[in-house]
Write a sequence for this structure.
């Protein structure tokens, strides 16, 4: 075999080897794609099945479906479905209702929830969709609740109700100080203590670790403000009443007596002409002539009654008015 034949054979063999290598690589790629497709299909199936098991989280704090309670029920499903935290985060977000996702998005903006890892997302959701009332207020509400009406026909429901509410009471986190404050709030029952009870509940909501001594100071300051406010209101009210009374007195018309007809006199008045119990206008002696002074209209014995105010003022205060005796 010549040298050229050897070269040709060698080149052909190299081509065959190259083609075999390329074919092997193609088979490997196809196998990897098939495995990846199967894995993606399995993942998609896992996500769908897990999402069905989780359901949808709808936040309603009044009925106590907080995220903490929801996550406690579904944690095992989440963590057993996948060991990949990114997939767990996707499942958490997929389980949120439309309003809940919008609320989370507005809390994080401009960041997005998808940027958070699994642990951060659980902590954030627990905080955003937590209970709307403090644990002390929830305990107070539990004691104020009554068993459902259906328990009257099935007494066993009372035990079930007490068992459920007892767990929600969270005795494990209650110490002596919190228990005393809880008693104080429950003792302040009834309409008369409504404002005081609200003050105590607000103080505990603002400071969950509040002590009995600190709560006492809150109530002392509240009582002082109440007294000051009452005093100020009394002064303002008294001043306002005086001003209104003064204004009304100034504006109200002065009372006046109706004018008497001319020539009339008060009833039961003494006649100035004769001293009788009748009006002078109707006196039979109104045209008689006084024998003492010579004037008409009165008798001599009653002359003093006919003197007017002007004549009395004209008479000296030190002069004794003498009575005229009727002439024989």
């Amino acid at each position: 075999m010549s040298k050229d034949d050897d070269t040709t054979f060698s080149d052909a063999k190299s081509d065959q080897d190259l083609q075999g290598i390329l074919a092997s690589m193609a088979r490997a790629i196809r196998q990897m794609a098939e495995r990846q497709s199967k894995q993606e299909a399995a993942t998609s199936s896992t996500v769908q099945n897990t999402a069905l098991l989780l359901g949808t989280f709808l936040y309603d704090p009044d009925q106590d479906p907080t995220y903490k309670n929801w996550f406690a029920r579904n944690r095992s499903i989440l963590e057993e479905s996948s060991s990949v935290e990114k997939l767990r985060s996707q499942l958490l977000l997929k389980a949120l209702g439309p309003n809940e996702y919008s609320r989370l998005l507005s809390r994080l903006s401009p960041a997005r929830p998808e940027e958070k890892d699994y642990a951060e997302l659980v902590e954030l959701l627990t905080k955003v969709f937590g209970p709307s009332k403090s644990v002390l207020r929830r305990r107070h509400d539990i004691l104020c609740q009554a068993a459902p009406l259906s328990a009257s026909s099935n007494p066993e429901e009372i035990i079930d109700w007490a068992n459920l509410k007892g767990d929600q009471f969270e005795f494990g986190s209650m110490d002596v100080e919190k228990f005393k404050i809880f008693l104080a709030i429950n003792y302040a029952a009834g309409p008369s203590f409504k404002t005081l009870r609200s003050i105590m509940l607000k103080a505990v909501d603002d400071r969950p670790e509040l002590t009995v001594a600190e709560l006492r100071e809150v109530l002392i300051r509240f009582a002082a403000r109440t007294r000051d406010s009452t005093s100020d209101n009394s002064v303002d009210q008294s001043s306002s009443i005086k001003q209104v009374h003064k204004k009304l007195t100034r504006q109200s018309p002065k009372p006046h007596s109706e004018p008497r007809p001319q020539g009339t006199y008060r009833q039961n008045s003494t006649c100035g002409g004769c001293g009788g119990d009748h009006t002078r206008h109707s006196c039979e002696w109104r045209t008689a002539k006084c024998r003492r002074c010579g004037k008409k209209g009165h008798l001599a014995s009653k002359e003093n009654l006919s003197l007017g105010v002007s004549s009395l003022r004209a008479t000296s205060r030190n002069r004794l008015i003498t009575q005229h005796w009727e002439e024989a």
